[in-house]
Amino acid sequence: MESDVLILGSGPAGYTAAIYAARAGRSVKLIAGPQPGGQLTITSTVENYPGFAAGISGPELMDQMGAQVLKYGVTIVQDVICSVDFSAGPPQCIGESGVIYTGKSIIIATGATARWLGIPGEKEYRGSGVSACATCDGFFFRNKSVAVVGGGNSAVEEAIFLTNFAQSVTLIHRRNTLAAEKLLQKRLQDNPRIHCLWNTVVTDILGDGLKVKTLLLKNIDDDSISEIAVDGVFVAIGHSPATSAFTGALELDKNGGIVTFAGTSTSVPGIFAAGDVCDDVYKQAITAAAQGCMAALDADKFLSTNI
After folding, report:
1. Which end of the chain is more exposed for a tag (fewer CB within 10 A), N or C?
2. Over 80: is that where the pLDDT of 79 sits?
3. Which of 4, 137, 298, 300 is catalytic?
4. What is the pTM of this model?
């Protein structure tokens, strides 16, 4: 299944790249990936995307982007790329379906996946009290006590969102200050249902074999150990670039992100990257969309020059 531009990923970067590439007159195929719409589909309200003064829900924003992509005749395929071969000949991307996709140019916009704590009990109780998505699972904790681990925008947003359901929310952060935006910090501080534990890490998640019951905590200042009873814990400590399929095929940085040069070019000519898969600094929907535009323009220039 060949196209002029093969796009991997369906978040803001992938969708924007598809719109620009299609409008340039290129045949475009987009592989949706494991989470069609990307991370914004598990975000409640987006307030900082230009053009929506009253805000817009993440799923609605991505639905509108997807509809715009289809308007320009882009073929969207529900598949996940599990391996690639960029060594010789036309670059190949192999889907979990077994289908081999090729493109005269490729734009990688596979985004990032949730990062976990890697502590005892986390994997055991995932889906039974341990989650990385308050929007997905918050409803199940109505009138319960929950904890959120992290100190960035995502963690604060999750904590605030969970107060729509939970009786109490404890934000656990390894530092004594938050990295979140000041506006979000104020909303957090003004919410009477949220309590913060500073300079604290979770060392173990304990349960009864069926669901989470307790978190074992360690204060990093004095190494003291304590416990808190919770019904659930939401891990919000960031994301890792979704690049496992490209290991050995493209140059990656120390964090696993795709290294880009002179815009969105990668270490292999004709292959470009955009969004959180290569951005370790900004990680915003608007910057991902902008990079998607850049990647489409770079791909179009490459095709005009080399094909």
Report:
1. C
2. yes
3. 137
4. 0.85
